[in-house]
Amino acid sequence: MESEAEKTFHLFAAFGDSSSSGSNLNNQNFVKLCKDCGIIDGKAITPTDVDIVFSKVKEKNVRTIDWGRFQTAIKELGQKKFIGKSPEEALQSMFALMRNKGPIASGVTVKPLQFLQPTLAGHSF
């Protein structure tokens, strides 16, 4: 199951940055991953919780996390989301939420093409 979660990690790590190798995840994409995969539920885990955990696991003066630090972050969030489960069970439950998920492009709407109509206003023919 870890390999499916790792695929999801790499998809989100590369999301929105064409120059990214997909090996490191920034805070913005970490929050997006947590929202799109249903980890953030607004009750047990909020976007603020995700930000705090990201800041705790990343190296000082670095803006991204790698796969190893990502697992640490997910394990910590899992213990908060799945109270009563062992840390390993919580991690596997978090990985299950991430299975077959990818970034959802939201907020993008395509406006239908409108043709300009010539007007006679202000013109004398």
TrEMBL record:
Coiled coil ranges: none
Location relative to the cell: Cytoplasm
tRNA processing in keyword set: no
Predominant localisation class: cytoplasm
Keywords: Cytoplasm
Annotated GO MF terms: tubulin binding
A GO term from the CC aspect: cytoplasm
Gene3D superfamilies per UniProt: EF-hand (1.10.238.10)
Record field: transmembrane: none
Biological processes annotated in GO: microtubule bundle formation; microtubule polymerization; positive regulation of protein polymerization
The family this protein is said to belong to: Belongs to the TPPP family.
Protein name, UniProt field: Tubulin polymerization promoting protein family member 2
Organism per entry: Sarcophilus harrisii (Tasmanian devil)
